[in-house]
Amino acid sequence: MFRLLKLHDTKGNELHLLTNRFDIDADEIAETYQSRWAIELFFKWMKQHLNIKKFFGHSEQAVHNQVYVAMIVYCLNVLAQLNTNSERSYLQISRYLKASLWKSAHIWLRKIEGNGVP
To answer: Residue 73 is part of which domain span?
Structure first.
């Protein structure tokens, strides 16, 4: 036995939610769905921007550490983009920085005017 809820999102679109929970009211189910959707969007962002495709450790601490390190790397890449006023995308800067770890070459994110540096 299921319960069908018809709700409207913030844009006015009608949503149909199917649940087997009869012990809570429709507003609470809608809030729960909205919270779960926000979590899904966060994980999507994390996969796309933090480049976390899988977790290497299984403990809670290992997962936290991997997320923290990935967030630090993301922030450093954004800072590199902002501090150099680069017009390159975050992805391009990330690729350049990764490549510079393995090659002994200087990588310039933008041309510095007036001092002869490429």
So the answer is: 60-102
Residue 85 half-sphere exposure toward CB, CA atoms < 13 A: 3
* Cβ-based neighbours of 5, under 8 Å, separated by 6 or more: 16, 17, 18, 19, 26, 29, 30
Per-residue confidence band for 108, with pLDDT thresholds at 50, 70 and 90? low
Question: Does 65 share its domain with 40?
Answer: no
Residue 40 and residue 13 share a domain: yes
| Bridge partners, 64 (sequence order) | none
When divided into structural domains, the chain yields a total of: 2
Cβ proximity of 33 and 19 under 8 Å:
no
Residues 32 and 64 in one domain: no
- pLDDT tens by residue, 27-71: 898 888 889 989 999 888 888 888 888 889 999 999 999 999 999
